[in-house]
Amino acid sequence: MWGWFPWRRTVVRRRVVVNLADKAFAGVLWAKRGPLLVLRDVTLMQHGAADTPMDGEVVVERARVEFIQAMGG
């Protein structure tokens, strides 16, 4: 699933939405460390709830990611 894709390097340090099965995180994809994604300046988005700003860094396991949306150019 996480083979080589041309966009993989281009989304680092860009604003993204990381979609999981039950929630999404909007923020800056700061780094990819092995099986983990590190996000900064993050907002938690859940269906039926208000968006919640998150303090510090959020670390997400790549295996839990459904898809990533790169925002803007």
Overview features:
six-stranded antiparallel beta sheet, SH3 type barrels, 6 strands, 73 residues
Q: Describe it for me?
A:
This protein is 0% helix and 52% strand. It is mainly β and 73 residues long. The protein has one domain (15-70): SH3 type barrels (Roll), CATH 2.30.30.100. Strands 1, 2, 3, 4, 5 and 6 form a six-stranded antiparallel beta sheet that branches.
Helices, strands, pairings?
Elements: E1 15-20, E2 24-33, E3 36-45, E4 52-53, E5 58-61, E6 65-70
Antiparallel strand pairs: 1-2, 1-6, 2-3, 3-4, 3-5
Count the domains.
1
| N- to C-terminal distance | 25 Å
Which structural category fits the helices and strands?
mainly beta
Return the CATH topology.
Answer: SH3 type barrels
Overall pLDDT metric: 88
- As residue ranges, the low-confidence spans are none
Residue share in helix: under 10%
Beta strand count = 6
Rg calculated over all Cα atoms = 12 Å
What is the CATH C-level name?
A: Mainly Beta
Number of helices: 0
Strand fraction equals over 45%
Q: If classified by CATH, what would the architecture be? A: Roll
Largest beta-sheet details? 6 strands, antiparallel
Order of H and E elements: EEEEEE
Which descriptor suits the 3D outline? globular
